[in-house]
């Protein structure tokens, strides 16, 4: 999670006043010296982005720029921490077997997160609790990915903290996976495993032929199982990029548009209805409160 808005005169590590060494990349925190900065790097490295987390009037938590960000610059890149695919979920009824399966998958992925990211995840929706609290946090903060096959939903810890505006200053995009590379890697693993099987077949010359064949079948089976696990891991790791589409000044809130491009072509009234239907929100951005249609 991005660093919280704080007094840059106080060391982020030890709390001493008079800090002069500011992080040169994000400009969001400062330290009293190199030793504190080095000790804090393991925690800070995933949060070293040019934004800080703060309370925004009428919107709750939001991200503001900690330094000037020119148009076209990448604000942040991050990988999904939890992903659920369409063939694994059914959120319409909590009693369904499909939903229970999705809950287990979300809980399993959360359990594998680092201590820092797990703490960030549980801070997303502090009001959710009970057996489905992980699923509640995931559903309330996730990003749809309709271009994937099968259709997926991903959770990005930084991206879900950005507030909506019908006139955003940033845009997010998901980087598609290279299926060709996955296919080539699968062929490589297959060839190496079959080669290992043939080697084992001739190496174990004292074994009976049936035992040799059985050993080779086990090796090939393990190989295909590993390919399946590897492919699932590959498809779960999706990267999201947020880029500035206009010059953003220090202290200005980073905003994105929650609607798809084809949903922003209507009137302001139509966009209001769509935001209300999909996100249960009344947009109060400068465009919607102004006199011109979106």
Strands ordered across the widest β-sheet: 5-11-10
Strand content: 15-25%
Cα-atom radius of gyration: 24 Å
The stretches of 5 or more residues where confidence is low (pLDDT under 50) are: 179-184
| Approximate helicity band | 25-40%
Provide the succession of SSEs: EEHEEEEHHHEEEEHHEEH
Number of strands: 12
What is the overall number of helices?
A: 7
Structural class: alpha+beta
What profile does the largest beta sheet have? 3 strands, antiparallel
Which outline best applies? globular
Query: What is the CA–CA distance across the termini?
Result: 32 Å
Q: Could you report the average pLDDT, rounded to the nearest whole number?
A: 76
Characterise the protein shown here.
The longest helix has 28 residues, at 209-236. This protein has helices spanning 34-44, 97-111, 115-122, 133-141, 179-203, 209-236, 268-279, and strands at residues 21-22, 30-31, 51-56, 60-65, 74-79, 82-85, 143-145, 152-155, 163-164, 170-175, 239-244, 255-256. The strands form five sheets. The protein has a three-stranded antiparallel beta sheet, with no helix packed on it. A hairpin with a 7-residue loop joins strand 1 and strand 2 (30-31). Among the domains are: 1-48, no CATH class; 81-155, no CATH class; 179-235. It is an alpha+beta fold and 294 residues long.
Characteristics of this structure?
globular, 37% helix, 7 helices, three-stranded antiparallel sheet, 294 residues
Short description:
This protein is of the alpha+beta class and 294 residues long. Helix content is 37%, strand content 17%.
